[in-house]
Amino acid sequence: MNIKVLLCNCKGLCDSFKNTDMNTLPFQVESDLDVTYTVVHPQLCGQGGNEILTEVLRESAADSDTYVVVGACAPDAQAKLFKKVLRSTGFDEKRFVPLDIRGTDNDGILARLKEKVEAILKQEESKVVGAPGS
Fold it and tell me: What is d(CA 47, CA 105) in angstroms, rounded to the nearest whole number?
């Protein structure tokens, strides 16, 4: 299974990221969690960010074992902002995991990501256990 993490910090201008060090966070995530990779983009909802998200989703669309966790603003906002990108890539929206990472520090973000990653792993594990012949 692959879990790809994309992080956004709203161009570094959003006050809700004032206690976050986005330079060290990807290393922390990759060191502490079972993820394929972690990348940071300053504005995933901008043109460049949408291009990167599109590439990641398109590349992962055919792989039913790949989840994409996007740590950024509120999940409802992400659903609206990335709706067109999700549709254009054919990526299964059930494997797109939006996560609000605002208003905390690196440890808080890491804890939120850990919770999401563990939930994904547990969900996948239950599919295998419940599969015919297991």
Answer: 27
CATH code of the domain covering residue 61: 3.40.50
Tell me the two tokens of residue 35: 């993820």
Nearest-angstrom CA–CA distance, 19 and 68: 24
Q: pLDDT for 101-129, tens place per residue?
A: 999 999 999 999 999 999 999 999 888 77
61 vs 56: CA distance, rounded Å: 9
Which residues face 4 on adjacent strands? 37, 68
The total domain count for the chain is 1
The whole domain housing 30 covers 2-129
At 123, the amino acid letter reads Q
Asked if the structure places residue 62 within a domain, the reply is yes
3-state class (DSSP) for residue 42: coil
* Cα–Cα dist 13/25, whole Å: 17
